[in-house]
Amino acid sequence: MSHQQNATHTKWYAKIQPLTLFAIEFKNEMNKRIKGFKKPIYVTRPLLPPLEKFIPYLREIWGSKRLTNIGKQHQLLEAKLINFLKVPNLTLFNNGTTALLAAIRSLNLSGKVITTPFTFPATPHALVWNKIEPIFCDIDEETLNIDPSKIEKLITPDTTGILAVHVFGIPCDIESLQTIADRYNLKIIFDAAHAFGTEVNNIGIGNFGDITMFSFHATKLFHTAEGGALTYKDKKLKPKLKMLRNFGLKNEFEVELPGLNGKMNEIQAALGLAVFKYWKDEYKKRKRIKLIYEENLKDIEGITFIQDKKSTKSSLQYFVIKINRSKFGRSRDYVLEKLKEYNVFPRKYFYPLCSNYQCYKSIKSANVQNLPVANKVVNEVLALPFYGDLKDNEVEKICNIIKSFKS
Ligand code: T4K
User: Fold this and answer.
1) Which of 77, 120, 137, 337 has the fewest Cβ atoms within 10 angstroms?
2) Which whole-number Å values give the CA distances from 41 to 298, 348, 397, in the listed order?
3) How many CA atoms lie within 13 Å of 13's alpha carbon, on the beta-carbon side?
4) What number is the average pLDDT over the span 209-226?
5) Terminal Cα-to-Cα distance of the chain (whole angstroms)
6) Residue 185: is it exposed, middle or buried by C-beta count within 10 angstroms (0-12/13-18/19+)?
7) CB neighbourhood size of 12 (10 A)
């Protein structure tokens, strides 16, 4: 800077400085005024029916002395879910991960399967437990799901399937995936751990691909504490999946397959039946909370949400924002750490990417250069607290806290 330029700059700065200082003061003041929450606010809380509504189920189980191995509660829950998810076939499991293990085995997948790096560890792990190499494919920046336009170049003669995830309950580009699968004779498994109740053009999300997996973990909107299910069109899969779930037993004396113990027990199933009665209420509450978040955060530069499509009914499993560091002035990690000071505990699902795990980073497809979108968004995404018990003013306060971080 020349001497003259310097003088002009100083003059300009002198004018602007009081304003800047005022803005900083104001923001500091705002920060001081927002007090942290007394109790921790987590990313989610399980939906629990009133205890007295669960006790009659327990009484019935106690009376029957039938605790597991596909009893009455199990059968009732299975029937209820077939109806609700609008699917032809459904098999319950003791969690989503064992369900996924059995799904992969039932379709005889082998060699290599194309999947997303932006998911929970259970997805690629289920492949590896079946001695299959996960081939990581980059994701779409808008939906955060596997990008079908990047799949074909990853297909080799060893590829037997695609394991796609409806991340945060947002449906994958199902049509494009099916076109590719048909062209190369590949099977498709959908990991719909987050997509309970998602529908596309009024069709339940469990009707697509060869098999769909749902998780009923306590953190899911509908849950059985731990639990899961597979849905599928081909009814011939049913006996095989039942065997895979029950040690491979065909009957008392014949073991046909090296199966697992993947059975949902009666207490889990009963909890599911009790939770089911309250599920719709929880959904309505989440709808309202989503609107409050959107209304309060929509005009903040640098914060965006995943947009719902008109054709899609959302599962409302998570409320996720993306924080663009250069536009918001603060990084996602800054926001996360600062929120903790206010007793708010969002989660950066799914950080780190599966392709960056110690156990997978040496796979060729895991190379950062092959996955530019996933490696970018994994530093931007934040799942905010999202459950029916959150009060309107608590959601508004979380938004105000986030707003106060903007620089
Ligand atoms: N595929 C995908 C795409 C998945 O996201 C998952 C699981 C699977 C497959 C496998 O399905 P499962 O085998 O789990 O059925 C949680 C869940 O444990 C996991 O099921 C879920 N995805 C994942 C996204 O979230 P964490 O490690 O984040 O959970 P945790 O214990 O830190 O809980 C999060 C918050 O929830 C806590 O801060 C407090 C609250 N919480 C949690 C539990 C368990 C409660 O208030 N009460 C509770 O009982 O994995």
Assistant:
1) 337
2) 22, 15, 11
3) 6
4) 98
5) 27
6) exposed
7) 10
218 Cα to the center of ligand 1, angstroms: 7
Residue nearest to atom 26 of ligand 1 (CA): 219
CA dist 239 to 209, 212, 224, 234, 362, Å?
19, 17, 23, 11, 38
Q: Is the CB of 119 under 6 A from ligand 1?
A: yes
Between vectors from CA 214 to CA 211 and to CA 216, what angle results, nearest 5°? 155
pTM: 0.93
Centroid of ligand 1 to alpha carbon of 389 (angstroms): 18
Give the model's pLDDT for residue 15.
Answer: 60
Is the distance from the beta carbon of residue 212 to the nearest atom of ligand 1 less than 6 Å?
no
Measuring from atom 37 of ligand 1, which residue has the nearest CA?
42
Return the structure tokens found at 283: 């959904």
* CA dist., res. 211 & res. 104, Å (int): 9
CA 227 to ligand 1: nearest atom: 15
Distance 26 CA to ligand 1 centre (A): 39
Residue 191 near ligand 1, beta carbon < 6 Å: yes
- Tell how strand 319-323 and strand 303-305 pair up: antiparallel
Q: How confident is the model at residue 407 (pLDDT cuts 50, 70, 90)?
A: confident
User: What is residue 1's predicted lDDT score, i.e. its pLDDT?
Assistant: 47
Cα separation, 255 vs 20, whole angstroms: 76
Q: What is the mean pLDDT of residues 64-79?
A: 98
Atom of ligand 1 nearest to the CA of 119: 3
